[in-house]
Specification:
heterodimer, A: 389 residues, alpha+beta, Immunoglobulin-like, 3 domains, 13% strand, B: 240 residues, mainly alpha, 10 helices, 62% helix, 0% strand, globular
Amino acid sequence: MEADNSAHEDDNAQNFDALLDAQIKGQVQGVRDSTVESNEEFTPALAVAERIAAGRGIVPSPDFAQTLKARFLELAETAQSDQNAVAPAAPPPATPDRPARRAGYIQSSLRSRRIQVAALAATLLIAMGTGLLIAAMSAPPASPFYAVRRLEQSIRVQIATNESDAARLHMAYADQALVSLTDAAQKQDLERYRAALATLVDEDSAAATAVSTMPPGDQRTQLEATVAQLRAREGTGLRTALPALSWHDRISTTSALAGIGADTLSITGAEISKAAKGKAGQHLWQVTVKGHSFQPGAVLLVNESPRGVVVSVTDDLLIAQVEDGPIQGNASIGVGNADNTAASTHQIVRHDTSDGSQATPTATPTPGNGGNPHGGTPTPARGQGGGKP
Amino acid sequence: MRHNDPAIRVGLSHSNPSLGAISQVSAEQNRSEDDLPFPSILDRARDLDKHALGLLYERYLAVVYRFVYLRVGDTHVAEDLTSDVFFSVVAHIQQLHAADELPFAAWILRIARNVVLTHYRTKRAQPPTEPVSHLALATSAEAGDPLDIITAREDWSAVVAALNALTEDQRNVVLYRCLLGYSAAEVGRLLEKRPGAIRALQFRALTSLARLLDQPTLPGGSIEEQAPALVTGKRRGHGG
């Protein structure tokens, strides 16, 4: 009995498949007729199949298709240049002649250094196990293996054969970080965003340093143009990410924008002074922030949160009034622009405060210095022995 | 059948009909636009050749997007996940051993499946947000009757929710067969199953779907609420 049922089910499945095939190939009318004649129980299933097949009309929007294609091919190009950069160099001449002795000595030193780095890589490989290292090589920012991935990238830079290859590697890593950063911002994964931003800042800066140390010539000009293109993409990516971020991350991101040469908001200092008494007998504090690129609609930030009422904004001066109590000594004062860029400073001069003193707390760099906002570990620029690029 | 032409109803276009049904273009499958045999395109793509990768992208973008869209039912999420699939292609194509188109299709669709599963796993770990059931499909050409547009959105939403109530195998067979247009034998090769098993799975799956779509409300309601079934691949008590 069970065997009969199973055979019947097989037959049904086979008949149904034949009808479905005909339907998929567009012989709809034939299918309908034969369905009615042969087995009406197939009709609902065939109707559902047709309904799903209507999904073949779904195509991505042309804008998305074009943008993704550009990013896809760009990623392929950076992956390829990454590979080329670590390809083994041509072997040096077997017997260098006398005038080339010094060059030979330098090459030999470099080779010896490369051997050391290769030995380090081999040790790492043995210590971690190949599987683990392969997993680490694709680890996203902020994941447990990301530090290993950065170490692996650092080793690759160290064994690059010349400055141009090292610059290409730095650019490739910056590009990868940009992709991660954009994705993290879209998904509001702030931890990954911060790690990716730190890598982006480090690698961008290292790429620019590597290019600047190259001798003038066509290759340097070409790489300078590539850095400029990379920075244009970075600028777009960072500005697109801004609205999804907290004020704290907007400040870091604005700092990164300034670091890549974008003309963006920056602060040179702030002053706090006691103004008149408020309606409820409270003191009003006037906060004056100096800098540039302040926009209409900008807000005052105290400790990275909006506070007070802005009474006047020009391109280089923002004046706001804060009613609810004095601003503490170690506070930060900042400005958030309408385009979501933000900057802050600890360079605060106090006038006429409650104890009558004037104090300037310890300075913290104003965004715009291009420094590393998150303390990430950069891949060392060549010739800097693993230090910050 | 309420669906006549989703391209009109939902504002989607047929800009690349060659990607509509792969099995119907089998005669051209081994020839690219440049008349390169597919294995040569793959060889060059493995070397990260931009032209070859561009050809693969053009050929598979709509296939991947369609597949992902019918799994998540939201344009923005589908775009994000499709991007992830293609980035993954760049990262891993050098390890690909496929020598022809069908194994390549199996590979890229496996990436797409994994990306979707990861998306649902991550989503399940996050606090619930806006339900997806009412979110829009692409509506770029929404010049038509607003009622038609709303009806089309609800139609796709229901289809996606019903698909999510199937088992992983059933869902894949239905999508590969009906949406992507592969034959039962090809689906068998793509999913490493016998054609007989594929035929049985598709029959049960489509019968279950018909029953589910006939119900006024799907079990679990929204697409999001169906997601656990999608992640675990567990059956939810209907056919299969």
